[in-house]
Design brief:
118 residues, mainly alpha, de novo design (two linked rop proteins), single chain
């Protein structure tokens, strides 16, 4: 399969799946978290696939790697926020493990692409 645009990339697709799940989970957070943890988690999740998409059409590997690095940072940020949500009991143990596994898988895919681009 030929990759025509960012939507053909598995790492972009996985980022969208993570965002969908984050929205579903944060919809159940307390209303007092709407402008704090809920918003932060949604922004971090959105940042993953957005930076993969933004970097894809760049004209140099250096630029693309920069955006992939930002996406990787967003994965770490989101993982931290999932831990906080679990500690606050906004997310179940099972739900947090599932999310952390998805985020870790995404991080590994981004790292592999970064290695491939070197």
């Amino acid at each position: 399969m030929k990759i025509k645009n960012h939507k053909d990339l598995r790492i972009w697709q996985k980022g969208i799946e993570i965002t969908d799940l984050i929205y579903k989970i944060t919809d159940k957070f307390p209303k007092n978290e709407l402008f704090s943890l809920t918003a932060q988690m949604r922004r971090a999740a959105i940042s993953i696939s957005s930076n993969i998409a933004e970097g894809f059409p760049r004209h140099s590997k250096k630029e693309y790697k920069h955006f992939l690095s930002i996406a990787l940072g967003s994965c770490s940020e989101l993982e931290t926020q999932v831990i906080i949500a679990k500690r606050k009991k906004y997310v179940s143990e099972e739900g947090s493990v599932n999310l952390e596994n998805m985020i870790n898988y995404e991080s590994k895919m981004i790292l592999n692409l970064l290695k491939l681009l070197k």
